[in-house]
């Protein structure tokens, strides 16, 4: 990681020129529900499609695999048996668990020979609060945010087929990290299962492989860790290489960039015998798939022997590290750096098993400090990767918080956890000036304040008297710069500090870069232009630009720039802190970053599609007694919204409701103008509304509740309410 201040500037000049902004300034539609629509669309009014419903308290249960049985909230799920796996077919209810898209473009690509870092997430059996697809009100959840250090994320549990909860897939893909599920067999039941599909002819194991490929393809994750932890018959173990070869080839055809990894457990004789290395007893499995994940009880001599077996595929050997330090292992816990030092010394990839140890075993109140400490100790052994696509927009939200904020305005108070809502995270850590200088900058996440979401990036630092500024690199990019880009930074300084805050971009000549690697760029091959304040913006950015250069609510400031560069590569994003004019003393500062945007100007000229065909289905009613003594009785409404929209165009959807809810007086006609109330976020073309309080309709009259679907474009601008999708429900009580 780059150092701050003078050291950072020197390193940046070797790679290209840094440009400082002056401080003054997949086209696939989501599947429509195959099941019966329980509403009847009766009319179109000027505001919304309208559906009619007669209130009924008759139970209408939803499939327990897909919905929480107590709340009917959609949940991620697993498969527990071979029979369930072979019987699975894509269903309308599966749509909630489909990821928003594939991994973002990254450099170097995963296929490069650079040693990789795999994180295997195993926590208390899996499917905890992360199973709730639309989020939960968890107060102290586990959150991972050091994504730029890892290349592969494995979601692990002891269920036969572990399908990663979609929140993890969305968060990982946003950072260019691929996601694997787990196929595991264990104990005597595992022996019987393997005998059933491996000991017969090719039809049996191909059927299992085809299902695994279909599941990864449908839910949009990237492959499988195969973990056979039971003995196999000679007939079964003889077919394992054929199973792996077929699974790998089919996955590569159907899932671009897909991976199949094998865990070090069974040997070629069929015995369950962990080797802690790659050798002649397990080499046949390594040769049949994309990689080999070793067991954890290795010593350096195991790594030395593995060198002779791996050949040119050193990066395809993932040496396992149990962060819990169970058994006879090297390192683990806060000594995991000792494991990484040996692994990297020999050129292998690393597989960190259960780094959630910092959450499970240490004080929850110090979780963020402990997690930052854990990853900072490994930093020197973890090469980062770069995002290589625009738009690049982040509010630094962790996908959790103690309240919800939207462009500086508080929307709701209370804990929330929604992994899909995690935005791109920066490089974290402490950066010090080279030499004898005392300057430093430290970055860490903070839930105390936010501009958009639940958290912001807190930057603390010190500018010593002998230097004029310090800087910190937040993101590594490899983006060919379009002719014109718009850049925005939202920040605020805490306390009385008057330091200058400026965004810096490092650029280089795109012609000197090549696919599969990052060339070192010199100053002579770089091209530099100065950003200028944005004057006449595109219509889509009117609200965005309206805030530029102004003091916003909560003390936030937004700076906006227009940058014109040709033939360049955008490499890094820095924030620079400079001492106030005339100051000669040591300057301490605390700065919060609320949002960073880099947008291709041409993308803003493309019309956005509108949210269309909003429908209502799977309606469930429950009686609701008012908390106020003598207050009117009400209803609790649960239902599912569907709509049509091109998913590659959005970051998410914000779902709102309008008047007629929460015990208000429903109108029999179109709702009166009012501020919509946020219900939640969706990352697919559907949303399950659960337990919404609405007023009971008067006898002979209709109640009305309206739903609005607000698309949030990847570019980060606000879509006018007139362009949101809308649907209304008229409901009446049954005649007695």
Describe the 3D structure:
The protein is of the alpha+beta class and 736 residues long. It has 3 domains: 134 residues, Immunoglobulins (Immunoglobulin-like, Sandwich), CATH 2.60.40.10; 231 residues, Alpha-Beta Barrel (TIM Barrel); 212 residues, Galactose-binding domain-like (Jelly Rolls, Sandwich). Helices cover 17% and strands 32% of the residues. The chain has 12 helices and 34 strands. The strands form 7 sheets. It has an 8-stranded parallel barrel with strand order 5-6-8-9-10-11-12-13, surrounded by 5 helices. Strands 15, 18, 19, 20, 22, 24, 25 and 27 form an 8-stranded antiparallel beta sheet that branches. Helix 4 crosses helix 6 and helix 5 runs parallel beside helix 6. The radius of gyration is 27 Å and the shape is globular. The chain starts with a helix and ends with a strand. The N terminus is likely disordered.
What's the SSE blueprint?
Elements: H1 5-15, E1 17-20, E2 40-44, E3 49-54, H2 82-87, E4 106-107, E5 117-121, E6 152-155, E7 161-162, H3 166-174, E8 178-186, H4 187-198, H5 202-219, E9 223-229, H6 234-254, E10 259-263, H7 283-286, E11 291-293, H8 300-310, E12 317-322, H9 336-345, E13 349-353, H10 357-360, H11 367-378, E14 386-387, E15 392-394, E16 400-406, E17 409-417, E18 429-432, E19 440-446, E20 456-463, E21 469-480, E22 484-493, E23 500-509, E24 532-533, H12 542-546, E25 557-564, E26 568-578, E27 587-600, E28 612-624, E29 634-644, E30 650-657, E31 677-682, E32 686-695, E33 703-713, E34 725-732
Parallel strand pairs: 3-34, 5-6, 5-13, 6-8, 8-9, 9-10, 10-11, 11-12, 12-13
Antiparallel strand pairs: 1-23, 2-3, 4-14, 7-8, 15-27, 16-17, 18-19, 19-20, 20-27, 21-26, 22-25, 22-27, 23-26, 24-25, 28-29, 29-32, 30-31, 30-33, 33-34
Helix pairs in contact: 4-6, 5-6
